[in-house]
Amino acid sequence: MSLFVLVMQFFWLYMDEMLGKGVGVWPLFQLLLFMSTILVPLALPLGILLSSIMTFGNMGENFELVAIKSSGISLLRFMQPLAIFITFISFLAFLFANYVIPVANLKALSLLYDVRNSKPTLTIRPNQFNSEIPGYSIRIGSKDEDGRTIRDIVIYDHSDMVGNNKLVMAREGEMIPTADKRALIFRLKDGWQYNEGFEHGVHNYTQIRMHFDQWDKVFDMSGFKFTRTNEDMFKSANQMMDVAQLNESIDSLKRQQKRSLGMVTSNLAPYISLETAGRQKDAVVKALAQKYAPARVTYDSTFLEYVPDSMRQMVMQAVVNNVTFQKTQMDGVSLDNSLQTENYLKYEIELHRKFSLSFACLLLFLIGAPLGAIIRKGGLGMPMVVAVVFFVIFHILNITGEKLAKAGSVAPWLGMWLSSIALMPLAILLINAARNDSKIFTKEWYFRLWRAITFAGPAVPTDTVAKEK
C-alpha cells in the first residue's frame, strides 16, 4: 500500500509531461514498473512501521500482550525474534539497493528523459494556427468527422528562414499519415501556390503564382516519433552505481583533487619565484638575502620609479598580462575543483543512502512495535495516523540532512544519517515506556499530569473515576 501511494505521487507529479505525446502504453508501463522498483527502499521502512504498529496494537487491544507479560516474557524478549527477522529484511534491502536499484535507476531515468523530451502528438484544430511542425504554420477552416478530410487550408512555409515568402492555399484536402508514422501527407485539391523570390539587384522582386488540381505536401514527422537514447550516456551518474563503483569514483575524485592542487603550484612557479619548491626556492631566498640585506634597499612609493621611462609601459603591460593569465588559470582550477567537490558530495551521499535507508527499516520497527503496544489499537485507524506522522518526521529529517550534505554544510555521512541519529533516542524512550506499560496515549494520563503540574482539581473527571472503581 505504501509503495502504491508513492508510485501514484510520482505519476501525478509527471503526468502532464507523459500524457499526450503518443508514447504508448508499454513505455509508460515500463516507466511505472521501474519507478516502483526505485521507490522500494523508501516504501519499505513505511510498510514496516505501519505493520509493526498494527500488529502490536492489535495484540494489545486483544490483551495478548498482557497474557505474554503475565507469563513472565518481557516485551524485549518477545520482540527479539521479530527484530532478528527485520534485521534480515534490512540486509536484503541493502542488497536490493546495491544491485537492483542502480539498474532500475538507469532504465527509469533514461526512459523518463526520453518521455519528457519527446514532442507531443500533432493536433491540428480548426481555425487555429499550428506551428508544431518546424518551418510551417498551418491553419484549417474545418475538419470532417472522419478526422482526415479538411477544408479551407492555409500553409505558410518559412523553412528557408527568410519569412513567410511561400504560401499554399487549398479549398479542401486529406491528411494521410504514412504506414511507418514518419511522414504526414496533405493531399490538397483545387488550390494555389504563391512564391515570392528575390534576385540580385535593387528592388528586383519576383512573385510566382501556380494553380493545382491536386498536390501532395509531405511533412517530416520523424521528430514526433518516440525514440530511445543510448543508456550508456547515463551510466556515469551516481544513482547508477553500486557500493564498489561509488568507492572507486570517490577515490578517483580524491586523486584528481590532489592533482588540481598541484597544478596551482606548477602554474604559479614560473611567475612567482618564492612558489618554487625544494632547492630552487632556498637558492632564490639566499640570493635575495645576500644581495639586498647589507644595503637594506627600501622603496619610497613603488618599484616602478626605478624602472626607466622607456621600459615602464612594457613592464606594466607584462605584469598585467601575467596577472590576467594567472587569474584565468586559477579561475579554471577553481571551477574544476568546485565541480569535483560537488560530484564528490553526490557520490558520498549516494553511498551512505544505501546503508541509511536499510538501517531505517530496523529503526522504524523499534519505533513502531512499542508504539503499537502503547496505543493498543489495531486496524487502519489510529495506527495509520501515527505511522504517517512518524514517517513524515523521518522523511523531513532525511531530506533536510541530504540538502545540508549537498550544500556542504555538514559532512555527507552526518546528513544521510541525521534522521536515524535523531530518532534513535525516541526509539529507546518508546521501548522503555512500553516495558513499563506507559499510559501516554490515554486521556487519564494527561489528566494526572495536569494535576501534578497545577496541584488542583481531580486527576480525571468524576464519571471516569467512578467507572474505573
UniProtKB/TrEMBL annotation:
Keywords: Cell membrane, Membrane, Transmembrane, Transmembrane helix. The chain crosses the membrane at residues 32-57, 78-101, 355-375, 382-401, 413-434. Its main location: membrane. Pfam families: LptF_LptG. It is a multi-pass membrane protein. It is found in: Cell membrane. InterPro entries: LptG/LptF_permease. The keyword Disulfide bond does not apply. This is Lipopolysaccharide export system permease protein. It comes from Nemorincola caseinilytica.
